[in-house]
């Protein structure tokens, strides 16, 4: 059975994306260019392919930018409507607020998606499981190495969720909430309106305690939360390399994706899923691996950029080395600087030429 055409979805996109600063100072996380398109384009194209036709965006942080990017949704074959919280209502409050724009009846399933997830799972199978078992909510579950950073979700042999432990220091299983839910609409309508509510800390534990059927749909397909810089560059590279198929990828799968007006010297090495943004330039002798080069940025001769983001119009000078670094828009990394793991350069900052070098063998 395939999911019904005409399924409605709520997309949670109101978070501030603090872990991705400085990239999210000017652009909300779900709109960051990812493999050539706003991140959400990948989620929307996938939802469309699984029968979703109407999406309610639950916005808060920089809300107006979503309408500017996606309009009425017709470009995606969708109808998109926007529901904005003046102050963030948390995940549950946001879902309840967005539900005011749903058109489906109380007994219909509604898809709810965190707006920062890349996932290869079969949404139709998840919806079908939910409908056939008559669940109140069905959660997509995946396995990760460090479940303490997520919602830990133990289930019984029948797939019934027995507890929901958000960001617990003592996880009881590696199986976690993957951030894609099927709710009965009536269950959403029962969330208190106009209040700050967390689905993870209040709604799910409350439903389980009340004996409602909360199901887990577990699978092992590709899954990534792009909420940190390292995960964001990985997600972008994985899309370019084709590790996760996306109908929204604006070019063929390969070692790199060159966008409009990008100029890469034939003597440069650009590999491992790097995106070279519109009008960005990479000079001879530069090596760029698994990175995101934003619009109009410049990587000079002999520079090395690995698993990093170079912001809009930023410049990386000759011989500079970046590994797992975020360079903000318009910043300048002077010649010879070597920046590593997790360093972030704020927009517009100018790092002058590095005059002193440290060497481990001195
Ligand atoms: N509209 C609105 N209002 N959206 C919100 C709000 C809010 O107040 N707070 C968060 N969101 C949105 C974010 O924009 C994001 O799309 C989603 O809700 C989840 O928020 P994150 O900040 O990314 O949460 P997380 O990654 O720490 O944890 C969540 O996702 C994990 C899976 O990636 C939880 O749901 C965990 O249980 C889960 O394992
Ligand atoms: Mg997240």
Automatic annotation (TrEMBL):
Annotated Nucleotidyl transferase domain residues: 9-238
Q: Which residues cross the membrane?
A: none
CDD domains attached to this UniProt entry: NTP_transferase (cd04181)
- Positions of the Mannose-1-phosphate guanyltransferase C-terminal domain: 254-335
Task: Write down a Pfam family by its short name.
Answer: NTP_transferase
List the InterPro entries hit by this protein, alphabetically.
Answer: GMPPB_C, Mannose-1P_guanyltransferase, NTP_transferase_dom, Nucleotide-diphossugar_trans
**What domain of life does the native source organism fall in?**
Bacteria
SUPFAM superfamilies in the record:
Nucleotide-diphospho-sugar transferases
The UniProt similarity line reads: Belongs to the transferase hexapeptide repeat family.
Q: What is this protein called?
A: NDP-sugar synthase
The record lists the organism as: Microbispora hainanensis
């Amino acid at each position: 059975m395939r999911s019904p055409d005409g399924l409605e979805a709520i997309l949670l996109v109101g978070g501030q994306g603090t872990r991705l600063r400085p990239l999210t100072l000017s652009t909300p996380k779900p709109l960051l260019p990812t493999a050539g398109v706003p991140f959400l384009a990948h989620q929307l194209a996938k939802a469309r392919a699984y029968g979703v036709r109407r999406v309610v965006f639950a916005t808060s942080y920089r809300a107006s930018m979503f309408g500017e990017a996606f309009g009425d949704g017709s470009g995606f074959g969708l109808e998109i409507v926007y529901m904005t919280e003046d102050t963030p209502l948390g995940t549950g409050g946001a879902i309840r607020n967005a539900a005011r724009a749903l058109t489906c009846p109380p007994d219909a399933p509604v898809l709810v998606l965190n707006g920062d997830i890349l996932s290869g799972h079969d949404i139709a199978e998840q919806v079908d499981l939910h409908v056939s078992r008559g669940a109140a909510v069905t959660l997509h579950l995946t396995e990760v190495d460090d479940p303490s950073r997520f919602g830990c979700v133990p289930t019984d042999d029948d797939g019934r969720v027995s507890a929901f432990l958000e960001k617990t220091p003592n996880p009881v299983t590696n199986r976690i909430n993957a951030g894609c839910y099927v709710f009965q609409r009536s269950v959403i309508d029962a969330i208190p309106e106009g209040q700050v509510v967390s689905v993870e800390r209040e709604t799910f534990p409350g439903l389980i305690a009340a004996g409602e059927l909360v199901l887990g749909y577990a699978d092992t397909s590709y899954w990534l939360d792009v909420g940190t810089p390292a995960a964001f560059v990985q997600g972008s590279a994985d899309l370019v390399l084709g590790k996760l198929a996306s109908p929204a990828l604006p070019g063929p799968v390969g070692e790199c994706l060159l966008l409009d007006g990008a100029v890469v010297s034939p003597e440069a090495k650009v590999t491992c899923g790097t995106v070279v943004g519109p009008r960005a330039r990479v000079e001879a002798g530069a090596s760029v691996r698994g990175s995101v080069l934003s619009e109009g940025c410049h990587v000079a001769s002999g520079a090395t950029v690995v698993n990093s983001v170079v912001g809009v119009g930023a410049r990386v000078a000759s011989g500079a080395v970046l590994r797992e670094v975020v360079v903000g828009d318009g910043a300048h990394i002077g010649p010879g600087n070597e920046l590593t793991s997790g360093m972030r350069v704020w927009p517009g900052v100018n790092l002058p030429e590095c005059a002193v070098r440290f060497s481990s063998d001195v």
